[in-house]
Amino acid sequence: MKSPSKTTTPGKTDRPPPPLARTESERVLTDFEQALICASEAFYRFAGVVLGPVGAKHKLTGHENVIFQQLLFTPNPRSVSELSRFSNRDDISNIQYSLRKLTAAGLIEKVPGSTNRDTRYRPTQAGRQLTEEIVANRRELLISPSSGITDVQAQLKAATDAMSLLTGLYDHASRMLTGRQ
User: Fold this and answer.
1) How would you write 21-53 as a 3-class SS string?
2) CA–CA separation, 64 vs 48, rounded Å?
3) Cβ atoms 109, 103 nearer than 8 A
4) CA–CA dist 149, 155 (Å, integer)
5) CB 32 within 8 A of CB 38
6) How far apart are CA 137 and CA 58, in angstroms?
7) Helix (H/G/I), strand (E/B), else coil: 143
8) pLDDT digit string (tens) for 109-126?
9) pTM of structure
Protein backbone atom coordinates (compact mmCIF):
# COMPACT_ATOMS: atom_id res chain seq x y z
CA MET A 1 0.00 0.00 0.00
CA LYS A 2 1.30 3.41 -0.93
CA SER A 3 1.90 5.94 1.86
CA PRO A 4 0.22 9.37 1.74
CA SER A 5 2.20 11.98 -0.13
CA LYS A 6 4.34 14.29 1.97
CA THR A 7 5.33 17.85 1.33
CA THR A 8 8.49 19.47 2.58
CA THR A 9 8.82 23.02 3.82
CA PRO A 10 12.34 24.40 4.21
CA GLY A 11 13.40 24.08 7.84
CA LYS A 12 10.59 21.63 8.65
CA THR A 13 10.59 17.86 8.85
CA ASP A 14 8.65 15.76 6.37
CA ARG A 15 5.09 15.47 7.52
CA PRO A 16 1.83 14.71 5.78
CA PRO A 17 -0.10 17.82 4.78
CA PRO A 18 -2.87 18.82 7.19
CA PRO A 19 -6.41 18.51 5.81
CA LEU A 20 -6.67 22.26 5.14
CA ALA A 21 -3.28 22.50 3.43
CA ARG A 22 -2.73 20.62 0.20
CA THR A 23 -0.40 23.12 -1.45
CA GLU A 24 2.52 25.13 -0.11
CA SER A 25 0.38 28.30 -0.15
CA GLU A 26 -2.35 26.53 1.82
CA ARG A 27 0.23 25.20 4.31
CA VAL A 28 1.64 28.70 4.87
CA LEU A 29 -1.88 30.08 5.41
CA THR A 30 -2.78 27.20 7.75
CA ASP A 31 0.42 27.72 9.77
CA PHE A 32 -0.35 31.46 9.94
CA GLU A 33 -3.91 30.79 11.11
CA GLN A 34 -2.65 28.43 13.83
CA ALA A 35 -0.16 31.08 14.98
CA LEU A 36 -2.97 33.66 14.91
CA ILE A 37 -5.20 31.44 17.06
CA CYS A 38 -2.39 30.90 19.58
CA ALA A 39 -1.44 34.61 19.62
CA SER A 40 -5.08 35.63 20.07
CA GLU A 41 -5.59 33.26 23.00
CA ALA A 42 -2.30 34.34 24.60
CA PHE A 43 -3.29 37.99 24.16
CA TYR A 44 -6.72 37.53 25.77
CA ARG A 45 -5.19 35.50 28.62
CA PHE A 46 -2.63 38.28 29.27
CA ALA A 47 -5.30 40.99 28.91
CA GLY A 48 -7.32 39.30 31.66
CA VAL A 49 -4.44 38.67 34.05
CA VAL A 50 -3.01 42.18 33.65
CA LEU A 51 -6.15 43.54 35.34
CA GLY A 52 -4.66 42.18 38.57
CA PRO A 53 -6.58 41.83 41.83
CA VAL A 54 -9.41 44.10 40.63
CA GLY A 55 -9.95 41.87 37.62
CA ALA A 56 -9.76 38.69 39.70
CA LYS A 57 -12.19 40.05 42.31
CA HIS A 58 -14.78 40.90 39.64
CA LYS A 59 -14.03 37.90 37.39
CA LEU A 60 -13.02 40.16 34.51
CA THR A 61 -11.56 38.48 31.44
CA GLY A 62 -9.40 39.62 28.58
CA HIS A 63 -12.58 40.39 26.66
CA GLU A 64 -13.61 42.89 29.32
CA ASN A 65 -10.14 44.44 29.26
CA VAL A 66 -10.32 44.86 25.48
CA ILE A 67 -13.61 46.76 25.85
CA PHE A 68 -12.05 48.76 28.71
CA GLN A 69 -9.01 49.63 26.56
CA GLN A 70 -11.25 50.78 23.72
CA LEU A 71 -12.92 53.19 26.10
CA LEU A 72 -9.47 54.53 26.97
CA PHE A 73 -8.41 54.81 23.32
CA THR A 74 -9.98 58.24 22.85
CA PRO A 75 -11.06 60.92 25.29
CA ASN A 76 -14.64 60.69 24.00
CA PRO A 77 -17.19 58.32 25.56
CA ARG A 78 -18.27 55.47 23.30
CA SER A 79 -21.57 53.71 22.69
CA VAL A 80 -22.08 49.96 22.26
CA SER A 81 -22.38 50.37 18.49
CA GLU A 82 -19.12 52.36 18.36
CA LEU A 83 -17.34 49.71 20.45
CA SER A 84 -18.71 47.03 18.14
CA ARG A 85 -17.55 48.84 15.03
CA PHE A 86 -14.15 49.75 16.48
CA SER A 87 -13.41 46.16 17.50
CA ASN A 88 -14.95 44.56 14.38
CA ARG A 89 -17.34 42.53 16.52
CA ASP A 90 -21.00 41.77 15.95
CA ASP A 91 -21.80 40.12 19.29
CA ILE A 92 -23.59 43.10 20.83
CA SER A 93 -25.00 41.12 23.76
CA ASN A 94 -21.48 40.03 24.79
CA ILE A 95 -20.23 43.62 24.56
CA GLN A 96 -23.15 44.75 26.73
CA TYR A 97 -22.36 41.99 29.25
CA SER A 98 -18.72 43.16 29.40
CA LEU A 99 -19.89 46.75 29.93
CA ARG A 100 -22.12 45.64 32.83
CA LYS A 101 -19.20 43.78 34.44
CA LEU A 102 -16.86 46.77 34.02
CA THR A 103 -19.52 49.09 35.47
CA ALA A 104 -20.08 46.77 38.45
CA ALA A 105 -16.31 46.73 39.02
CA GLY A 106 -16.34 50.53 39.15
CA LEU A 107 -13.96 50.89 36.19
CA ILE A 108 -16.42 52.59 33.81
CA GLU A 109 -19.63 54.56 34.09
CA LYS A 110 -22.52 55.61 31.91
CA VAL A 111 -22.26 59.19 30.73
CA PRO A 112 -25.00 61.29 32.32
CA GLY A 113 -27.59 62.44 29.79
CA SER A 114 -27.14 59.44 27.50
CA THR A 115 -30.34 57.92 26.21
CA ASN A 116 -31.02 54.20 26.71
CA ARG A 117 -30.80 53.71 22.96
CA ASP A 118 -27.40 55.37 22.70
CA THR A 119 -25.84 54.96 26.15
CA ARG A 120 -22.24 56.10 26.20
CA TYR A 121 -19.56 54.88 28.58
CA ARG A 122 -16.35 56.34 29.92
CA PRO A 123 -13.65 55.24 32.38
CA THR A 124 -14.00 56.25 36.03
CA GLN A 125 -11.17 57.57 38.18
CA ALA A 126 -10.63 54.02 39.49
CA GLY A 127 -10.44 52.85 35.89
CA ARG A 128 -7.82 55.47 35.05
CA GLN A 129 -5.78 54.44 38.11
CA LEU A 130 -5.91 50.79 37.03
CA THR A 131 -4.74 51.91 33.59
CA GLU A 132 -1.50 53.17 35.15
CA GLU A 133 -0.86 49.68 36.54
CA ILE A 134 -1.64 48.11 33.16
CA VAL A 135 0.76 50.49 31.40
CA ALA A 136 3.51 49.70 33.94
CA ASN A 137 3.01 45.95 33.51
CA ARG A 138 3.01 46.20 29.71
CA ARG A 139 6.24 48.22 29.83
CA GLU A 140 7.92 45.73 32.14
CA LEU A 141 6.66 42.50 30.60
CA LEU A 142 6.22 43.32 26.90
CA ILE A 143 7.96 46.52 25.82
CA SER A 144 11.20 46.07 27.73
CA PRO A 145 11.85 42.42 26.77
CA SER A 146 10.98 43.07 23.11
CA SER A 147 13.40 46.01 22.88
CA GLY A 148 16.21 43.55 22.16
CA ILE A 149 14.51 42.36 18.97
CA THR A 150 16.15 43.95 15.96
CA ASP A 151 13.93 46.66 14.47
CA VAL A 152 10.94 45.53 16.56
CA GLN A 153 8.90 48.70 15.91
CA ALA A 154 9.19 48.31 12.13
CA GLN A 155 8.30 44.63 12.44
CA LEU A 156 5.23 45.43 14.53
CA LYS A 157 4.14 48.11 12.05
CA ALA A 158 4.54 45.64 9.16
CA ALA A 159 2.60 43.00 11.11
CA THR A 160 -0.14 45.56 11.84
CA ASP A 161 -0.41 46.39 8.13
CA ALA A 162 -0.55 42.69 7.22
CA MET A 163 -3.19 42.01 9.90
CA SER A 164 -5.31 44.90 8.64
CA LEU A 165 -5.13 43.56 5.10
CA LEU A 166 -5.99 40.05 6.25
CA THR A 167 -8.91 41.38 8.32
CA GLY A 168 -10.34 42.84 5.13
CA LEU A 169 -9.80 39.58 3.24
CA TYR A 170 -11.43 37.47 5.97
CA ASP A 171 -14.37 39.91 6.23
CA HIS A 172 -14.83 39.85 2.46
CA ALA A 173 -14.66 36.05 2.38
CA SER A 174 -17.22 35.88 5.22
CA ARG A 175 -19.63 38.13 3.29
CA MET A 176 -19.18 36.06 0.13
CA LEU A 177 -19.84 32.79 1.97
CA THR A 178 -22.87 34.26 3.75
CA GLY A 179 -24.26 35.36 0.39
CA ARG A 180 -23.93 31.84 -0.97
CA GLN A 181 -26.02 30.28 1.81
Assistant:
1) CCCHHHHHHHHHHHHHHHHHHHHHHHHHHCCHH
2) 8
3) yes
4) 9
5) no
6) 19
7) helix
8) 999 877 767 899 999 999
9) 0.82
